[in-house]
Amino acid sequence: MVNEERLQKVIAAAGVASRRHAEVLIQTGHVQVNGQVVTTLGTKVTSKDEVMVDGVPLGKEPLKHLLFYKPRGVITAVSDPKHRRVVTDFFEDETVRLYPVGRLDYDTSGLLLMTNDGEFANMLMHPSFGIDKKYVAKVQGIPTRLDLLPLKQGLTLDGKRLAPAKYNILSSDKKKQTAIVELTIHQGINHQVKNMFKAVGFPVIKLAREQYGALTLQGLQSGDYRPLKPAEIADLKALAQKG
Predict the structure, then answer these.
(1) What is the pLDDT of residues 32-62, one digit of tens each?
(2) Could you tell me which of 182, 172, 179, 131 has the C-alpha nearest to residue 152?
(3) Where in the chain is the domain with CATH 3.30.70.580?
(4) Phi-psi region of 25 (alpha: psi -120 to 50; beta: other; left: phi over 0)
(5) Where is the RNA-binding S4 domain (predicted)?
(6) Among 49, 105, 132, 147, the one annotated catalytic
(7) Cβ(66)–Cβ(79) under 8 Å?
(8) I need a labelling partner for 213 at 20 to 30 A (CA). Which of 47, 100, 155, 167 fits?
(9) pLDDT in tens, 68-114
C-alpha cells in the first residue's frame, strides 16, 4: 500500500514553503500534480505523483537558514501583485526557494529570518511557542515609565489579551517631543508593537526589530544577509521548544 500525504504537508516537508504558505500556493494556482493545477486543500498525493511548484519539480533542496536585515519600504512576501519590492528580491543569487519566517511591516526595518526549511519555520511561528523579539521604536510624545506600565502588565487589544512586555526608555527629545523606546515581546500578532504603543497614547513614528532570540544585526548593513550558524539554529529550536 502506498502512503498518502496531504499536498501542503508534502510541499512543506520538501522545504519549499511553510505549511501555511504552501496552502496559499495551492489556493492561488501555483501547484500542479501530474501536470494538472490543483487548488483544493486537503488533496492527497503519494511518492508516485509528480508535484510541481511554479513549474519546478518538487525535490529535496538543501536546507538554508538566513538572517536578513530587511530595509524599510520592502514587502515581507515572496511576490506582490502591485510589483512593489519584496524580500525575496534580495536573494536572486540563491539557488533554493526562500520565504520569510513571520513578517515585518512594509515600513518596519530589521531582523528577519529567511529559510526553505518548513519544519523550522513552523516551529518558530507556532502560536504556542514564544521567542523574545526586541524592537526599538521612535514614538510621538515623551512617555514616563508609569505611562508605559500597561505594556508590562499586559494589554487587551481587539478582545485579545497580550502577554506582558518588557520596555526601556532609551532617550527623549523635548524639542521634537519624541522618544526612543526599546520593547521586548514574544508574540507575533500583526502590527502588535504599533498597536501597543498607540493604545497607551504614543504612536510609532519609526520602528526596527533589532534582536530575535540571541540573534542581532551586528555586522550587517540594511539589505545584507548571512547564513545562520549551526549553533544558532540549534539555539532557536531549543528556545521554541522551551517556549
Answers:
(1) 999 999 999 989 998 788 898 888 887 667 7
(2) 182
(3) 61-129
(4) alpha
(5) 5-64
(6) 105
(7) no
(8) 155
(9) 999 999 999 888 888 899 999 999 998 888 989 988 999 999 999 99
Here the cell at position 230 is 549551526
Given a cut of 80, whether residue 241 has pLDDT beyond it is: no
Contact 122, 116 (CB under 8 A): no
- How far is Cα 137 from Cα 10, in angstroms, rounded to an integer? 40
Contact indicator for 133, 177 with CB cutoff of 8 Å: no
Helix (H) or strand (E) holding 192: helix 192-199
Write down the CATH superfamily of domain 133-212: Alpha-L RNA-binding motif (3.30.70.1560)
Residue appearing with cell numbers 542581532: 216
Q: Count H helices and E strands in the chain, helices first.
A: 6, 17
If you average pLDDT over residues 139-154, what whole number do you get? 96
In the chain, CATH 3.30.70.1560 sits at 133-212
89 is catalytic: no
CA distance 139 to 238: 34
Q: Which residue has better confidence, 153 or 2?
A: 153
CATH superfamily to which 5-57 belongs = RNA-binding S4 domain (3.10.290.10)
Average predicted confidence (pLDDT) for the chain = 90
The rounded distance, in Å, linking the Cα atoms of 128 and 138 is 30
| pTM across the whole model | 0.78
